[in-house]
Design brief:
Number of strands: 10
Helix content: 40-55%
Low-confidence stretches: none
Radius of gyration: 19 Å
Strand content: 15-25%
Strand order of the largest sheet: 1-2-3-5-7-10
Largest sheet: 6 strands, mixed
Bound molecules: octanoyl-coenzyme A
């Protein structure tokens, strides 16, 4: 698939996916969502990529779902539109490798929601985050009611969603909505630095850890422990575990092969 709204480039086992529709502040319409779905499906299968960075072109990360496309929808069409977004965001959330959102500007509505589907969020000091949907007469519909509450707790999530007030990066950091805030010029460097750090570790161990955290969060603590134990045990069937521990004992850096 040729992309009209995405720019994808790879540097040193890191893929950077940039949403490139700056005239509408990278609003997510059906076309962008279909391209993101295609792109992340391929990234999932691409063993040469160890970490993905998602960002936006221009002054916006993503200013939400496309309001002009949504304005004429009926309930059935609204359901289908939400499902297309949700399926794509689930693909990002469940990707076999970590995804870092580099939030360069507006992350509103669907923009905040897509960042929540990523594993780690780094924001520029210029970022503005929020769920303004109730001010438009709708609820969040790309997973916001679920992931925001799981990320920052139900009280803060309800306040943000009910008041529909957008918050600056520093406040987002204070409530745990983003992991880190940096100056705009430093955003991509910081995301790359973190991505490279992760890429230097055992790809399989990182994948199993991501899976255990994500799956464990959906369940009770006993089942969560079962999930962790199963994935921990899987590591002992890998070359990476042997290399990682051998390298430690030999006082050298490990050379992981991802198998
Ligand atoms: N959809 C469509 N177009 C948009 C959007 C959007 N979400 N956001 C901005 N644009 C367009 C503007 O219409 C404008 O277009 P034009 O130049 O043709 O007039 C262009 O982008 C530039 O925008 P502004 O002139 O408004 O730029 P400002 O810098 O003045 O303001 C803001 C920036 C504050 C981000 C402002 O554009 C804004 O408030 N945008 C809307 C933000 C918003 O409400 N987002 C949430 C949308 S709802 C949502 O995401 C629901 C997700 C779940 C969907 C489930 C499906 C059923």
């Amino acid at each position: 698939m040729d992309y009209k709204f995405l720019i994808k480039e790879c540097q040193d086992e890191i893929a950077i996916v940039k949403i490139n529709k700056p005239k509408s502040l990278n609003a997510l319409d059906s076309g962008v969502i279909a391209e993101l779905n295609d792109c992340f499906t391929k990234l999932d299968q691409d063993d040469s990529v160890k970490v993905v960075i998602l960002t936006g072109e221009g002054k916006s990360f993503v200013a939400g779902a496309d309001i002009s496309e949504m304005s004429g929808l009926n309930a059935t069409e609204g359901n289908a539109f939400a499902k297309a977004g949700m399926d794509t965001f689930l693909l990002i959330e469940k990707l076999s490798k970590p995804v870092i959102a580099a939030i360069n500007g507006f992350a509103l509505g669907g923009g905040c929601e897509i960042s929540l589907a990523c594993d780690i969020r780094i924001a520029s000091t210029k970022a503005l985050l929020g769920q303004p949907e109730v001010g438009l007469g709708i609820t969040p519909g790309f997973g916001g009611t679920q992931r925001l509450a799981r990320t920052i707790g139900p009280g803060k999530a309800k306040e943000l969603i009910f008041r529909a007030n957008n918050i600056k990066a520093e406040e987002a950091l204070a409530i745990g909505l983003v992991n880190k805030v940096v100056e705009p010029d430093a955003l991509m460097d910081e995301a790359m630095k973190m991505a490279k750090e992760i890429a230097s570790k055992s790809t399989l161990a990182v994948k199993y850890a991501k899976q255990a955290i994500n799956n464990g969060l959906q369940t009770d603590i006993d089942t969560g422990m079962d999930i962790e134990r199963a994935n921990f045990a899987l590591c002992f069937a890998t070359e990476d575990q042997k290399e990682g521990m051998k390298a430690f004992l030999e006082k050298r850096k490990p050379e992981f092969k991802g198998c």
